[in-house]
Structure formats: structure tokens, C-alpha cells
Amino acid sequence: MPHMPPGYTNSKVDMAAQDTGDPIPVTKPTARNLSGSPATLASDDRNNSQPDPNSGQATPATNCPTAHRSIDRWLNQYSRYHQNTWNKRIHFICVPLIVLSVLGLLWSIPVPPQIAAWSPLFNAATAVVLFASIYYTRLAPSLAIGMLIIASISLVLLSYSEQWTGITTWQWSIPLFILAWAGQFIGHQIEGKRPAFVNDLQFLLIGPIWILADVYRRIGIGY
Questions:
Q1: Using an 8 Å Cβ cutoff, are 102 and 205 in contact?
Q2: 102, 124, 100, 104: which is closest to 112 by C-alpha?
């Protein structure tokens, strides 16, 4: 048998991965500490893992081998960008505010009279909610239902916002949008990582259901 260099391993798992076409786990080199015992080198896989641009889906988390569904892969990838407690708290506040402000801005877009005649609730905001619901349904129907309920409540609030506040919807949506995004970037500054959407814009849609999925887990609802 040819002599193998120190630290070389020929894992059956690696060969099986090659046969199946699955991602091949990378074995990090080891260094020995002063006592002679192996010390595994620090890995930043969690920080640098990127979505697969060819598949349009996030690469499965290496520390979550059972994450086979698309929704699990997306949520696992998104979580890698949000490990810091303060960053997560900021997201739980700012992401819903961003969603509300975006819906408010879309709600303010003038609708042609022919379309407005169908229903006063049919506008750009409701159209985006419809398309987003279709996207979420493909990932996780139960999460899609929760998002649709939340979005519907938001649309009802928007329909009365001018009556209650005396301010046009876009006038409060713009500063809310700016402040919420400022909070997001502060959170990522604390985290020390770029926002996930820098690598894939689909993460802009994953953020809201990442928060809702956390709520589901806390109250025992499966998705």
C-alpha cells in the first residue's frame, strides 16, 4: 500500500457522496496543541456558506444533515447570517416594520380607475401579497397561511390608516422603511456579517417566514 501523508483519511462517506452527487463534506485539517492532543481548527463555514446559484436554493447546512426540504435549507442558510442575539432581536422588530412599510408604499401607488372599480382593496399591495403567498405555499403551506393572515391584517390596517392618522400612507411608510433598514444594518454590524440578501435576493422573502417559523416552533405549530 502506498504511504499516505499524515492526517490523510479515505472516508467511505466521501466516496458515497461522490457516487450520489451530494455535497462532499470537507474535512478540516487538524493541528496539535502543546499536549499532543488534536485540536480542530476553527471553521467559518457558517459565515461563508453561499446559496447554490445554479439550483436557486440554499445549500443545506452541513451541521443539519436532516434538512432535506427546501424550506429547511433556506431557513438554515438564513440563520447562519443571524447568530448574534442582539441581531436576532433587531430583526424580530425591524423585519415586520419593513414588511408593513413596503406594503404601505405599494398601497400608495395609484390604481387605474378600471382596476379600482373591481374592488377598492385591489392594488399593488394586494397583488404582491398574492404572489408572495404563492411563493410561500411552494415552500411550506402552513407558513404561507400564517403569512397570509398577517398580510391581510396589515392590509386592513392600511385601508384605515389615513382615516385614523390624517397622514397619507406613503408619508409615514418612507421614514418607517428607512429607520427599519437602518436598524437592520446596525444589527448586521453587530453580527459582523453582511445581510443574507447580498448573496441572493430571495432572502428578502425568507426573512419574514424565518421569524414566523421561530414563532411556530415556540408555540408548537409544525411547518
A1: no
A2: 124
